[in-house]
Design brief:
By secondary structure, this protein is of the alpha/beta class. The longest helix has 29 residues.
Length: 259
Amino acid sequence: MDLGIKGKTAIVCAASKGLGRGCAEALAEAGVDLVINARSEGPLQQAAEEIAAKYGVKVTPVACDITTPEGQAKVLAANPAPDILVNNAGGPPPGMWSDWEREDFIKALDANMLTPIALMKAVLPGMMARKWGRVVNITSQSVKSPIPVLGLSNSARAGLTGYVGGTSRQVAPEGVTINNILPGIHATERAESLDRAVSEAEGISMEEAAKRRQATIPARRYGTPEEFGAMCAFLCSQHAGYIVGQNILLDGGAVNSTM
């Protein structure tokens, strides 16, 4: 399928690996020029070179902390008028409700709610003026089904979801869509670290730990960055202009819900 976005430009955050990298590759395959971001310069530069060589698009790496105003300014300086914005940032650490103080919630809100809001506020006026734009926020399945030990993430990402719910309807008349993708467990370094923790705690192999976790997923496997990226690219395509303010689960059926 021709996604109809060849020659457009995108900012993809946290794109040196994992789900962000999957989104960047899928957009590049569709002919989109990229500004990609991550904190570590070496892996980011390598990702940019590999994506550019594979797909023949322009890829500009910007190494910075996207959760800071300084980092946001650097990324926006590299592309102040993107057609596409993919918001992505790692989640806050797990814990118990009694562990967290006000400062912990402020950090979580800064990273997983206020950063994507700041980037949207920066790029939406230009998208609206051009009568076309796509924003995709990578959130979490915990928005649909809260995970007890991820209270910080549950709170911040739910706040972002509420913001998108209202804002997406305000910008839609100008040809701009905002949607969220809610990932479950995917075959990334995050899944590997979770399986390693179980392996070490219970004295079992990594393979057994992964098999146990996969058995809890109806699809009986982890998702892949490639299929995640394909969904992101579709939401950014010319075919997705009627999808507004939606929360799309990519979790292999892990969240048991009719809505």
